[in-house]
Amino acid sequence: MTYESEYPPVYVTVDVVLLTVRDDALQVLLVERGAREQRGSLALPGGFVRQEEDLPDAARRELREETGVDVEPAHLEQVATFGAPYRDSRGRVVSVAYLAALPALPVPVAGTDAAAARWEPVSAALDEPLAFDHHAILEAGVDRARSKLEYTALATTFVGPTFTVAELRHVYEVVWGRSLDPGNFHRKVLGSEGFVRRTAEQRSSGRGRPAATYEHGGATLLHPPILRRAAP
Amino acid sequence: MTYESEYPPVYVTVDVVLLTVRDDALQVLLVERGAREQRGSLALPGGFVRQEEDLPDAARRELREETGVDVEPAHLEQVATFGAPYRDSRGRVVSVAYLAALPALPVPVAGTDAAAARWEPVSAALDEPLAFDHHAILEAGVDRARSKLEYTALATTFVGPTFTVAELRHVYEVVWGRSLDPGNFHRKVLGSEGFVRRTAEQRSSGRGRPAATYEHGGATLLHPPILRRAAP
DNA sequence: CTAATAGTGTCTGTCAGACAATATACC
DNA sequence: GGTATATTGTCTGACAGACACTATTAG
């Protein structure tokens, strides 16, 4: 069937910047577009919002359909909306961008809408052409992630359910692109109320003294925050 | 003419949270809806995005058409997008919310789309029913303004082209809802690089020593920021 | 003069960062 | 033991806030 409208139609899509930390790099999940428009080019996963579907639901569904990744229990937040008139050659398409973060565990599986899905370092993704204005969307998502590490517990969604302070520090170092003093970081994380909660186990990386493990302590906003300073 | 589409139509609107400081209160510009939908109820100014119009352009245009206020030289930033499926009874309407700030100078003039436009204290506006989900949009806009005072020069858009430190402090006090130490605030503002630039004039409020006047110093991000602390 | 506001100086507690010291594992 | 990492301790500089003090106007 077709629908009629007295105004020219405006389409609403969602695009997802799904980040993870793997191989000592901040990586983003990209899909090779299988749909007719810009077929073959790399793009962020995303697609059209359905008529009775909430925006974050659409983001989760498109991510699942296009990449096989289920972001259900993890972080998903709106970043910004991109709506320049000619950003999409199919017509007027306004896209709501979402940021998601996952541990490095899941391996993407190409779904129906996309010929392929794969992780790629953010630095590389920003150096190659992406479909539509996805370069700007990716930048906005990464910027948001970098600043949210400072004052929210976002970093815990980059690691598994339990983690060591060093693993958490590695997330900060990779996302911010600078090294941090292990001692000071340790004290700041444990001093930020509700950031992490101690678990019973220990964990050894094979070298050195084994570390205590922690789980997310329930706080979403950090007091005090883990501040980022200008690189030395 | 009518347009046909293979999908049910989704409408995109913009809504503007225009804030100002007047009568020692943070106030928001509201319109009494003249359009058929929710006629007579109070709402944020806003409306449908045109086919070839960028989103911030639509925000400025709707503000001008509905209230006679021209926000051209002032601050206008995107806040968030609201798209719950049944937030608007006319159908699927996704709204991109914008935040704007102006000095208390302009008096609103009702335009064609709205029966009336008026300033109202934010505290009062949040206590009465607003059309659609504009209560949540207003809250998001005010939250954004409060946090942006900390690390951007947003406060300068609430005052005239030249201002005293006390006028700037008044903006912070009203928007944050707490009093600030005049001496410490003075030192922090002048110590934040590029926040304000001294002008030649002085200004007297009638009582006490006349104050030096300043203009915006060009910086958008403040180093160091003007931090907000928990109320004493 | 007094009242009022503008602007400066000083002290103190907090905290980030540098870096040293200790703890505990593996080889 | 030696090495590597975890964790804790110590010092120092920067800075926010409290508050005292000086400066400059009106009346």
TrEMBL record, chains A, B:
Keyword field: Hydrolase
Segments for region (Disordered): 198-217
Pfam families listed in its UniProt record: NUDIX, WHD_NrtR
Hydrolase keyword on record: yes
Entry-linked CDD domains: NUDIX_NadM_like
GO MF annotation list: hydrolase activity
Signal peptide range in chain numbering: none
Domain annotation Nudix hydrolase: ranges: 9-142
Source domain of life: Bacteria
Keyword match Hydrolase: yes
Name of the protein: 8-oxo-dGTP diphosphatase
